[in-house]
Write a structure and sequence with these properties.
Blueprint lengths: L4 H8 L13 H12 L10 E6 L2 H7 L11 E7 L15 H18 L3 E2 L7 H7 L8 E9 L15 H4 L4
Antiparallel strand pairs: 1-2, 2-4, 3-4
Bound molecules: flavin mononucleotide.
Length: 172
């Protein structure tokens, strides 16, 4: 039986690295942001922020910080704020990045569910991004960029490569 629901969505999602030259409607952007806003976070601290970049002059500036925006018409920038996050007393770990990654995953999967494409981009100059928007990003670590739009390419070869279930999962 074919999968449905979330598993189907997870199967169908891939890193999209080419986009149509077509804007994403505001109501879809709102849904994507809502999916990210609803993400869980440690002790519900919600130390996460998402910025929307779609104005051509902003996209041009962002493109100086990474090779991986693929001329997308829209980029989500996800930040985590360590001063707002929960810190475990067991190991002293600050969970800002964990919380930001959960919200980022919600965002990425909602993009997929809306029939759009995106790519989680971790290879960018975070200091350069912050230098472009110093007031907005004061206190925030920049965790990921998501170039987003209507897909104009399918998955790369890497998409099909996953560990076997035997390697991936185990019983204790
Ligand atoms: C934390 C993280 C950082 C990534 N950074 C980049 C990146 O900078 N550039 C890029 O093209 N893809 C990036 N990717 C996408 C991965 O290469 C991709 O998810 C992986 O190869 C599996 O392919 P798939 O997403 O198509 O299934 C990143 C993914 C993750 C989760």
């Amino acid at each position: 039986m074919a999968n449905s629901g979330f598993l189907k969505l997870a199967e169908e999602r891939y890193s999209c690295r080419a986009f149509e030259n077509k804007p994403v409607p505001d109501e879809l952007i709102d849904k994507i942001l809502e999916a990210a806003r609803l993400a869980p976070s440690a002790v519900n601290r919600q130390p996460v922020k998402v910025w929307v970049a779609r104005r051509p002059e902003v996209l041009e500036k962002l493109a100086t910080t990474t090779k991986y925006l693929f001329d997308a018409p829209l980029v989500f920038v996800v930040g985590g704020n360590p001063s707002q996050a929960w810190v475990s007393r067991h190991d002293g770990k600050n969970r800002a990045e964990t919380d930001a990654c959960i919200a980022a995953t919600h965002l990425m999967m909602e993009i997929q569910d809306l029939g759009l494409g995106s790519c989680w981009v971790g290879s960018f100059d975070a200091a350069a991004v912050k230098a472009l928007f110093p007031e907005e990003m004061e206190g925030w670590d920049i965790i990921a960029l998501f170039p987003t739009g209507y897909p104009a390419a399918g998955p790369s070869e890497r998409h099909a490569v996953r560990k076997s279930m035997e390697e991936f999962a185990g019983e204790l």
